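Per reviewer request, we include the raw input and output of the structure prediction for the construct analysed in the revised manuscript.
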Amino acid sequence: MKGPGLFSMLQIVAGMSMAGPMFVLGVNMVTSGDAPAGLAFFALGLIALFAPTYLVRKIGGPRTWIRRRLGRAESGSDGDERFDPLKDR
């Protein structure tokens, strides 16, 4: 079984570090009686939780960044082209 990679874990940590305080503030506001503002902070927390993963998927991962920096064009739908020795036969 393959677990999440280092880059995936960094995305999760970045999302939780931004979203965690928003969730705490949302719970505090809901329990103190300001439900609309608390729910707004919950919504902002959800956006902040998934923003790093969304951005990385939208602009590509580290391999794509390196290829762009070196000036190579992306090939294939996911940017990875595998070597196939039987392709030319």
